[in-house]
Amino acid sequence: MQNSGLETIQSKKIDHQNSISINDQKESIVSFIEDVPAYLNEAMRKYIDDHPNWDQHRLMQAAISGYLLEKGVTSLEMRRFYTQSMFCKRSMSGSI
C-alpha cells in the first residue's frame, strides 16, 4: 500500500504559493503519509465531493485539531487553528 501512497504524492504537485493558508503567518508545515482504511477514505472523498469548499488538507487539519482539543490540549494556538480551519473565508464563500 506504500506504493499507492507514493504514486499519489508523485502525481500531485502542491503549489504552495497559490494555495490558501489558514493563517496569514508563515507556518512550519510537516507532511506525513498514513494509510487509512478504504471506508474512511471513501467517506472523506464523499464529504469533499459534497462540500466543494473543503479539501483533504483542511478536513484532516480540522479533524486532528478538533480531536486534540477534545482530548484536553489547551493551547491557545490550537484553539485558534481549529476555529480558523472550521470557519475560514473559503468555507463561507461556497453554498452553505
What characteristics describe this protein?
globular; 96 residues; mainly alpha; disordered N terminus; 5 helices
Average pLDDT figure: 74
Uncertain parts: 1-25
Radius of gyration, taken over Cα atoms and rounded to an integer in Å:
15 Å
DSSP strand tally: 0
Shape: globular
- The computed structural class is mainly alpha
Number of helices: 5
End-to-end Cα distance: 36 Å
- Biggest sheet record: none
DSSP strand content: under 5%
Helical residue percent band = 55-70%
Succession of helices and strands: HHHHH
Strand and helix map with partners:
Elements: H1 2-11, H2 38-50, H3 56-70, H4 76-86, H5 89-93
Helix pairs in contact: 3-4
What does this protein structure show overall?
The chain is an all-alpha fold and about 100 residues long. Helices cover about 55% and strands about 0% of the residues. It has 5 helices and no strands. α3 (about 55-70) crosses α4 (about 75-85). The chain is globular, with a radius of gyration of 15 Å. The model is unreliable at about 1-25 (pLDDT under 50).
